[in-house]
């Protein structure tokens, strides 16, 4: 598969801890590929890591732009997708 069909996923906070990675290249199963389906791909590559809950509460950014509605975003390869986990502070 060509690198043009890959995306780079950046992991922060709990997502980084769960995967043990700060970034990963992921081949898109189809092109274009809906961002809303990316969580299932990530979970399948990192089973039994608790990612279902982490990704379910996280936000996404694509090429440094926050995504309001993942259902409306199609990934075409070459993009950088960040998993932005919720943070708490005090």
Give a written overview of the molecule.
- The modification 1-thioglycine is found at residue 90.
- Heterotetramer; composed of 2 small (MOCS2A) and 2 large (MOCS2B) subunits.
- It is found in: Cytoplasm.
- Keywords: Cytoplasm, Molybdenum cofactor biosynthesis, Nucleotide-binding, Phosphoprotein.
- The modification Glycyl adenylate is found at residue 90.
- With 90 residues, the protein is an alpha+beta fold.
- The protein has a single domain (3-84), classed as Beta-grasp domain (Ubiquitin-like (UB roll)), CATH 3.10.20.
- It contains three helices and seven strands.
- It has helices at residues 13-19, 38-45, 51-56, and strands at 6-11, 23-27, 33-34, 59-62, 65-66, 74-75, 80-84.
- The N and C termini lie far apart (46 Å).
- 19% of the residues are buried.
What do the pLDDT scores average to?
93
- In the CATH hierarchy, the architecture is Roll
Protein structure class: alpha+beta
Q: What's the order of the H and E elements? A: EHEEHHEEEE
**Can you tell me the CATH topology?**
Ubiquitin-like (UB roll)
Q: What's the gyration radius in Å? A: 12 Å
Shape call: globular
How many DSSP helices? 3
Low-confidence stretches: none
Strand line-up in the sheet with most strands = 2-1-7-4-5
Strand content: 25-35%
Number of domains as seen in the coordinates: 1
N-C termini distance: 46 Å
Q: Can you identify the CATH class?
A: Alpha Beta
Count of β-strands:
7
Helix share bin: 10-25%
Largest sheet: 5 strands, mixed
CATH superfamily: Beta-grasp domain
Subunit structure: Heterotetramer; composed of 2 small (MOCS2A) and 2 large (MOCS2B) subunits.
Keywords: Cytoplasm, Molybdenum cofactor biosynthesis, Nucleotide-binding, Phosphoprotein
Pathway: Cofactor biosynthesis; molybdopterin biosynthesis
Subcellular location: Cytoplasm
């Amino acid at each position: 598969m060509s690198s043009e069909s890959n995306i780079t996923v950046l992991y922060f906070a709990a997502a980084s801890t769960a995967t043990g990675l700060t970034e990963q290249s992921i081949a898109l199963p189809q092109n274009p590929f809906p961002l809303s389906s990316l969580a299932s791909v990530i979970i399948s590559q990192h089973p039994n890591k608790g990612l279902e809950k982490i990704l379910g509460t996280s936000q996404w950014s694509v090429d440094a732009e926050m995504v309001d509605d993942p259902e409306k975003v199609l990934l075409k390869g070459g993009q950088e997708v960040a998993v932005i986990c919720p943070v708490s502070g005090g």
